[in-house]
Design goal:
binds nicotinamide-adenine-dinucleotide, seven-stranded mixed beta sheet, six-stranded mixed beta sheet, 2 domains, 15 helices, alpha/beta, about 500 residues, oxidoreductase
C-alpha cells in the first residue's frame, strides 16, 4: 500500500494529523494507496514554508526564474508518459486522454516561459516637468490553488506555472481522489531546480481548504470544482481579504441547426459527450436540436456511441470507468430518473460490458432523447457519460433555453450558416464558445473561464488574465533631479 504525503520544504512530508484516506484504481475498484489528510496544523506548516520561501523567490532575477520554468517544461515534455500512467491509475481516464490533459497543461508552462515579456510595465517620461511615471506588476506572495479530481494535472497547470514565473510561491491542494499527480509535479519542480518552499502540496479535504481560505499568509486563491464549493470558497476567501477566482460546474449545450453537417456533428457530440466518461467541465451534456434535425441526428449519435469501447484505461479502450463507485451510482441514478420521467433511453450504459475487472466503476455511454427542461437530467450537472437531447422548435426557443440555464461555462453551435453562427456567438451567455467546435477550450495564451454559476470572481484562468490575477499593479511617480525647496503648498498637485 503506497503512502501519499504532502510536499513541504522540498520533500515529502506525511503530516502530523495521522488521518489518511483511501486512493482507488477506478478500473479495478482496488485501494492502491492512502493519502495523508491535513489537519489545520499541517496546513499551517505548509503555508509557513511557502511564506518563508517567498522573499528570495520574488527577488531572484526574472532570467533565473524563467530558466527554471524552461527546465520544468523540458522535463515535463520528456516524462509525460509517467505522469499519464499515474493519472490513469487514480482517475481512470484512458492513457491517450491523460496525455492530452498533460499537453494542454504544458502549453501553460510554455506561456509562462514568456513571463519577462508579460511582466513588462509602462513608462512615461516627463509626465510633468522632470517627473516620470512608470507602472509595474509585482507578485502577491504565497497563493493557494485548490483543484478537482477530473484534471489532476491540467487544472493545477492552468495556474501554478504563471503564479511561480511571476514570483509567487504556491500551495496546491489537489483532490484527495487522485493526489499522486501533484506530488509527481512537485518532484519534477525540484529536479528543475526550483528552490524548496516555492511549490508546496497540501493533501486533504475541507480542513486543508479552510486553512488556505482563512490563513492570512495566503494572498490569493484559485479554485476549480463544483458550483456549491466554488461559491463557498469565493465567499469565505474574499471575506478573509483574499483575491479569489472560483471556477464552478457546467452544463454545456450544443445547438444544432437543421443545416449542419450531421455526420461531423454526430462525431463531435460523441467525442465531447463521452470523452473522459463525461467527467469534463467542458463536456457537451445537452444537444439542443432545432426543428426536425433530431430525427436525423439521434440515430447517427447512437450508432457512434454504441461503438465506443469501454474498459481499463491502460488497454487502448476509448472510455474508462467513473472515478468512484459512489459517483457511478449517482450518475446511473440520473438515467433511472430520466427514464421514469419520460425521456427515451436510446442507448443504455447501465448494461455495459467493459474490457476490465469486475470491480471497476463502469457505466457505458448513455443517450437520452426527448429530455425536457424540468427533468433532473436536464437541470443538474451529471458529470458522467450521459448525453441528453432536447428538441426545440426554433433558434430563438433554443437560445432562450441555453441563456436561462444557470451555468455558462461553454456552449457551441453546429451550422453551415455564417450569419446564424455569428448571431449565436454574440447572444450566447457563456464564457467559451465553439462554432463547429464542440469543446472550445481556449489556448493557454487566451483565458479559460465561464459565466454565471460557472465562475465566481472576475478573472479567468491563464492567459493575460492569469498574469493579472497573480500580480498586483504599482505606479511610481518620480522627480529627478530633486526639486529645489518650493515652500508650503497644501493644494492638490497639478501637472506643469
Ligand atoms: P468538488 O467541488 O467536490 O471538489 C473540488 C475541490 O474542493 C477538491 O480539492 C475537494 O477536496 C475540495 N472540497 C470538496 N468539498 C469541499 C468542502 N465542503 N469544503 C471545502 N473544500 C471542498 O469537485 P470535484 O468533484 O473534485 O470535481 C468535479 C467538479 O469540478 C464538477 O462540478 C466540474 O464541472 C467542476 N470543474 C469545473 C471546471 C471549470 O473550469 N469550471 C474544470 C474542472 C472541473
Amino acid at each position: 500500500m503506497r503512502e501519499i504525503g504532502h510536499w513541504v520544504d522540498g520533500k515529502e512530508f506525511l503530516g502530523s494529523s495521522g488521518d489518511t484516506a483511501p486512493v482507488t484504481d477506478p478500473a479495478t475498484g482496488r485501494v492502491t494507496g492512502r493519502v495523508s489528510m491535513a489537519d489545520a496544523a499541517d496546513g499551517r506548516v505548509a503555508i509557513a514554508s511557502a511564506k518563508a520561501a517567498f522573499p528570495a523567490w520574488r527577488d531572484l532575477s526574472l532570467t533565473k526564474r524563467t530558466q527554471i520554468v524552461f527546465r520544468f517544461r523540458e522535463l515535463l515534455d520528456q516524462r509525460r508518459p509517467e505522469l499519464a500512467k499515474l493519472i490513469t491509475a487514480e482517475h481512470g481516464k484512458v492513457l491517450s486522454d491523460a496525455l492530452g490533459e498533460i499537453s494542454r497543461g504544458q502549453e501553460v508552462v510554455e506561456f509562462a516561459c514568456g513571463m519577462p515579456h508579460l511582466l513588462k510595465g509602462a513608462m512615461t517620461e516627463n509626465a510633468s516637468t522632470s517627473v516620470d511615471v512608470c507602472s509595474m506588476r509585482q507578485p502577491l506572495g504565497p497563493v493557494g490553488i485548490i483543484s478537482p479530481f477530473n484534471f489532476p494535472a491540467m487544472v493545477p497547470l492552468w495556474f501554478f506555472p504563471i503564479a511561480i514565473a511571476a514570483g509567487n510561491t504556491v500551495v496546491l491542494k489537489p483532490s484527495e481522489k487522485d493526489p499522486s499527480a501533484a506530488l509527481w509535479l512537485a518532484e519534477l519542480w525540484a529536479e528543475a531546480g526550483l528552490p524548496a518552499g516555492v511549490f508546496t502540496v497540501l493533501q486533504g479535504g475541507k480542513t486543508a481548504v479552510d486553512e488556505l481560505l482563512t490563513n492570512p499568509g495566503i494572498k490569493a486563491v484559485s479554485f476549480v470544482g463544483s458550483t456549491p464549493i466554488a461559491q463557498y470558497v469565493y465567499a469565505t476567501a474574499s471575506a478573509h481579504g483574499k483575491r479569489v477566482q472560483a471556477l464552478g460546474g457546467a452544463k454545456n449545450h450544443m445547438l444544432v441547426l437543421p443545416d449542419a453537417d450531421l455526420d461531423a456533428t454526430a462525431d463531435a457530440a460523441v467525442n465531447a459527450g463521452f470523452g473522459s466518461a463525461g467527467e469534463r467541465c467542458m463536456a457537451v451534456s445537452v444537444v439542443v436540436a432545432v426543428g426536425d434535425v433530431a430525427d436525423r441526428l439521434v440515430p447517427k449519435i447512437a450508432e457512434r456511441a454504441a461503438a465506443i469501447r469501454v474498459g481499463d484505461g491502460t488497454r487502448s479502450c476509448d472510455m474508462g470507468p467513473l472515478v468512484t463507485a459512489q459517483h457511478r451510482d449517482k450518475v446511473a441514478g440520473y438515467i433511472d430518473s430520466g427514464e421514469r420521467n419520460g425521456a427515451s433511453v436510446v442507448l443504455d450504459g447501465r448494461h455495459v460490458r467493459p474490457d476490465g475487472a469486475a470491480g471497476g466503476f463502469w457505466l457505458g455511454p448513455t443517450l437520452l432523447d426527448h429530455v425536457t427542461p424540468e427533468m433532473k437530467v436536464y437541470t443538474d450537472e451529471i458529470f458522467g457519460p450521459v448525453l441528453s437531447v432536447v428538441r426545440a422548435g426554433s433558434y430563438d426557443e433554443a437560445m432562450t433555453l441555453i441563456n436561462t440555464n444557470p451555468y455558462g461555462n461553454g456552449a457551441c453551435v453546429f451550422t453551415r450558416d455564417g450569419g446564424a453562427a455569428r448571431r449565436f456567438q454574440n447572444e450566447v451567455e457563456a464564457g467559451m464558445v465553439g462554432v463547429n467546435v464542440p469543446v472550445p477550450v481556449p489556448m493557454a495564451y487566451y483565458s479559460f473561464g465561464g459565466w454565471k454559476n460557472s465562475l465566481f470572481g472576475d478573472t479567468h484562468a491563464h492567459g493575460t488574465e492569469g498574469v493579472h490575477f497573480f500580480t498586483r499593479g504599482k505606479v511610481v511617480t518620480s522627480r529627478w533631479p530633486e526639486p529645489a525647496r518650493s515652500g508650503l503648498d497644501l493644494g492638490f498637485p497639478e501637472n506643469s
